[in-house]
From TrEMBL:
Pfam families: cobW, CobW_C. It comes from the Bacteria. Keywords: Chaperone, Hydrolase, Nucleotide-binding. Belongs to the SIMIBI class G3E GTPase family. ZNG1 subfamily. PANTHER family: COBW DOMAIN-CONTAINING PROTEIN, COBW-RELATED. The keyword Isomerase does not apply. Residues 212-302 form the CobW C-terminal domain. This is GTP-binding protein. The keyword Glycosyltransferase does not apply. It catalyses: GTP + H2O = GDP + phosphate + H(+).
Length: 345
């Protein structure tokens, strides 16, 4: 039976980063993935890089709410036919893990079995998120493996987590770099280690999904770097997470600029547009009561007049792998695309 590992964690904690790490270090393990995102555009699916043997991508809502057990069985059935060693479901950052676990345990497909719950915690945001969302505590308690991510940015508050879950291993990491054997080789042990009770799996409190909303913005017009940075520096009220891709279209900067914000964090990642895709800006904003004028504000960040090339310095100082601002950064060649992404294209 193929183990189905559920990967959860609050918005922006590092699930896709961890999944990409697993995919790039799988060494012969055949992995199928289901990627679920909350926004209308499944940015996470576009950000999955590496050797995926089979992938199903679902956007626009949490799998825990939009799919019933039969839908999940259908997806698992499609993947199970592909002779995989493991299936990883990356839940949306607002999913209710209990509901997902319940649905997986109810699966009638005897080729798959529940392989455990892995929860990614954000070392920077953990205290704030759990103060704001006490309902997350219940899900923490049923995790089989807790990955404390972003330890390069903040110390993991392990004692605090222990008050919610006293038994599951807690692995502090940066950039989701866990030892893949923790999931793949030991997956059969994970659920056995935890006896899930009826109470564990039935929680009637509202989960975070209910209070978060999303705004999507797309345009094929190039964006103005200074105006967009002003938006990012003074983010609209209610915005917690923003992700997607930006097209600046300036000479030397026609690449795809992936953008990520989580709380105060902001990073850009530059890569070529996948073959066959038109350059366009696609942004998903997620938050609580996000200022409804946000899309208009983004619309006003499009280029309507001449833009100086040096304006890109406002962006390049937040580029992955760039430590200091220098004009040279403007002339660096784009990063190579991962092989798998090229193959997929
Ligand atoms: N410095 C640092 N950044 C990280 C780390 N892990 C992830 N990030 C960055 O944090 C941002 C969010 O990471 P993702 O992997 O997209 O998070 P996610 O949990 O998939 O996000 P959602 O699906 O929207 O909930 C990205 O810009 C990552 O590059 C880390 O350990 N250290």
């Amino acid at each position: 039976m193929i183990p189905v590992v559920l990967l959860t964690g609050f918005l922006g904690s590092g699930k896709t980063t961890l999944l990409n790490h697993l995919l790039s270090s799988a060494r012969g393990t055949k992995i199928g993935v289901i990627v679920n995102d909350f926004g209308q555009i499944n940015v996470d699916a576009m950000a999955v890089a590496g050797q995926v043997d089979s992938m199903i991508s679902l956007g626009n809502g949490c799998l825990c709410c939009v799919a019933d057990t039969e839908d999940i069985d259908e997806m698992l059935g499609k993947l199970a036919g592909a002779k995989l060693d493991v299936i990883v479901i990356e839940a949306s950052g607002l999913a209710d893990p209990q509901a997902m676990v319940r649905k997986l345990l109810a699966s009638k497909d005897d080729r798959v079995r529940y392989g455990g719950l892995v929860t990614v915690l954000d070392a920077v945001e953990f205290e704030r998120t759990h103060a704001e969302h006490p309902e997350l505590a219940k899900a923490l308690a049923i995790a089989d493996l807790l990955v404390f991510n972003k330890t390069d940015l903040a110390d993991p508050v392990i004692e605090s987590v222990r008050t919610y879950n006293s038994t599951a291993p807690i692995v502090p990491v940066a950039h989701g770099r866990i030892d893949p054997s923790l999931l793949f080789d030991r997956a059969p042990e994970l659920p056995v280690a935890r006896q899930l009770t009826f109470d564990d799996l039935h929680d009637h409190s509202e989960h975070a999904h209910a209070v978060y909303d999303t705004i999507t913005f797309t345009t094929t017009e190039p964006m103005h770097p200074v105006l967009l940075m002003d938006f990012l520096d003074n983010r609209p009220a209610g915005l917690y997470r923003m992700k997607g891709f930006v097209y600046f279209g300036l000479p030397g900067h026609t690449d795809r600029f992936g953008v990520q914000t989580v709380g105060n964090y902001l990073r850009f990642h530059r890569s070529p547009w996948p073959r066959g895709t038109k350059p366009e800006t696609q942004l998903v904003l997620i938050g609580k009561d996000i200022d409804s004028t946000s899309a208009d504000w983004l619309e006003a960040c499009q280029q309507t007049g001449p833009v100086a090339l040096d304006d890109m310095l406002w962006v390049t100082r937040y580029l992955d792998g760039v430590d200091d601002i220098s004009v040279d950064t403007l002339h660096e060649p784009p990063q190579e695309r991962p092989e798998a992404e090229q193959d997929e294209a």
